[in-house]
User: Which sequence fits this backbone?
C-alpha cells in the first residue's frame, strides 16, 4: 500500500486554499479602501480641534453688551459673527474694537477695527485655512458654531459652542 494524497484530495485542498486566499485578498482590499478615509477623518478631527481652540479664544473676548453681537438671523447658520471687544478698565481709557469672524474662500478670517478712531483701517488676520464652511448662531450669551471640513472626498461636520461671561 502506497502512502500519499490522491488527486481528488489534492484538488480539494487547493480549492480550500484558493478560497482562503481570496478572502484574505478581499479583506486587504477593504483595508486599503477604508484606511485612507479613516486617516482623513482623524486628520479632520485634529484640524477641527485646533480651529475650535482659536474660535473659542476669540469669542471669549466679546463684550460688554449683548446688543453689540450681530449675526445674520435670516439664515439657519449665519456666515459671520460680529461683536465688540473692550480693552481697559478705566472708562476714559477704554478702547473698543469691532471684531468679525467669517470666511474668505476656504479661510477662516477675523476682521478687527478700532471703533475709537475714525477711518481706522481694518486688520485682517487668517485664523485657519482649508475649510468648506463655517456658520454661527447666537442666543443669550452663547455662540454655537458649525465647521465643515472637506478633503479628498471625505467630509466632516463639527459643532461646538462657547458661552461668554463678558456680556451683560
Assistant:
Amino acid at each position: 500500500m502506497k502512502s500519499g494524497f490522491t488527486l481528488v484530495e489534492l484538488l480539494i485542498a487547493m480549492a480550500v486554499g484558493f478560497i482562503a486566499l481570496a478572502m484574505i485578498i478581499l479583506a486587504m482590499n477593504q483595508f486599503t479602501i477604508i484606511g485612507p478615509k479613516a486617516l482623513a477623518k482623524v486628520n479632520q478631527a485634529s484640524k477641527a480641534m485646533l480651529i475650535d481652540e482659536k474660535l473659542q479664544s476669540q469669542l471669549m473676548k466679546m463684550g460688554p453688551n449683548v446688543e453689540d453681537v450681530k449675526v445674520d438671523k435670516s439664515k439657519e447658520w449665519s456666515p459671520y459673527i460680529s461683536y465688540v471687544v473692550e480693552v481697559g478698565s478705566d472708562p476714559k481709557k477704554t478702547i473698543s474694537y469691532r471684531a468679525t469672524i467669517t470666511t474668505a474662500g476656504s479661510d477662516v478670517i477675523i476682521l478687527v477695527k478700532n471703533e475709537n478712531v475714525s477711518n481706522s483701517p481694518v486688520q485682517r488676520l487668517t485664523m485657519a485655512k482649508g475649510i468648506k464652511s463655517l456658520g454661527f448662531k447666537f442666543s443669550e450669551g452663547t455662540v454655537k458654531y458649525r465647521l465643515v471640513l472637506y478633503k479628498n472626498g471625505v467630509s466632516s461636520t463639527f459643532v461646538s459652542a462657547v458661552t461668554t461671561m463678558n456680556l451683560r
